[in-house]
Amino acid sequence: MRVVFKTSYDHDIGMFRHRAQATWYVLLLTGVLALPLLLGSFLIGEMTNMLIWAIAGMGLMILVGQTGQASLGHAAFLAIGAYANVILQQRAGLPFLVSFPLAGLIAGAAGVLLAIPTTRLHGIYLAIATLAVSILVEDFIVIAEPLTGGVGGMFAADITIFGYAINRYINPDAFYWLTLAVTLLVVYFYRNLLRSPLGRAFAAVRDSEISAQAMGVNVPRTKALAFGLSTGITGLAGALMGHYSGVITHENFTVIISIQMLLMIVIGGLGTIHGAFFGAMVVVFLPQALSFLRDWVSGMTGGGSVAISGLETAVFAMILIAFILFEPMGIYGRWLKIRTYFELFPFYRKNMFRRQKSYLKTERMR
């Protein structure tokens, strides 16, 4: 059992809880860096896809998990990041090291513009507004054919960094390490954001906007910043997603993707960096697991492999329902309970993580 005694406020804002935790993360980083030396091209491609989804999940997590603002339109900002990155490279002739961060900035600016008229919306009304934006962006991609290629889409060129070309199929290891580097930068930024005054303002707005306003938090400005940072990181994920898929069309960024992103962070664990990674693992590896299971069942029964339409969506929905009913804190929440049980044994209480069912009185005044 490990008991952490806090002797100063530095323990609350430290990057790690203790040295043992830092050691485990160093070992994890060493393992993920060495994965291309241990896995084949297919699995490295799946790991790269998982990291891209994790980046997108962290972007959405800032808005939904940290600030408490519902969004069903983040696929639109994936599209903005992907198209902006490709257009800046092909039409403006900018290198990847310039077009990539600019794509994130453009997506972030679009998020701020969305936040300006929607700062007074809450709950389902905000979700509907973001859903409408996602539909409009999808239609705009088709209409603006001279700029976006319309229904035919656009081809993403190879990534070139200091003369070295990176392609998902030709050198998947290099593309994996590039995506991993972006992921680590986003994690570092996210972790420091949580420890900053802005991150604490996000949490205050999430828990009670009226209480946050009473403490001097500028709620509209905080929401706008949350939208900007969230959509900016999502735009970076969209840019990498464009290079990963090779061809980007409006069908890559439908409303279903927005809903899938929201369900992903709910299953992984709202309000945590770990939750974005756990949710990304479910989104990426669930279809592969179902495919292997279907082939195994076909081999055992001696019949041919039969593709069942909508199977992945149905299983994903069943997993979501199970987590909402039995583990609302997600996969990472379940891990926290298991870890806390062993840390506090035999003093662990069963109701330690009971959900708060009552609303704050300040929230009833809306």
* Beta-strand fraction estimate: under 5%
The count of β-strands is: 4
Query: Helix coverage percent of residues?
Result: 55-70%
Task: Give, in order, the helices and strands.
Answer: HHHHHHHHEEEHHHHEHHHH
Give the overall shape, derived from the CA principal axes.
Answer: globular
What is the average of the pLDDT values? 84
> How far is the N terminus from the C terminus?
45 Å
Low-confidence stretches: none
Transmembrane segments: 24-44, 50-65, 94-116, 123-144, 150-167, 174-190, 224-241, 253-286, 306-326
Membrane topology: Multi-pass membrane protein
Keywords: Cell membrane, Membrane, Transmembrane, Transmembrane helix
Subcellular location: Cell membrane
How does this structure look, described?
The structure is a single chain. The protein is mainly alpha-helical. It has a domain at 10-255. The protein has 16 helices and 4 strands. Strands 1-4 form a two-stranded antiparallel sheet. Strands 2-3 form a two-stranded antiparallel sheet. Strand 2 (159-161) and strand 3 form a beta hairpin. Helix 5 runs antiparallel to helix 6 (96-118), helix 6 (96-118) packs antiparallel against helix 12 and helix 13 runs parallel beside helix 16 (330-344). The longest helix has 29 residues, at 273-301. It is globular.
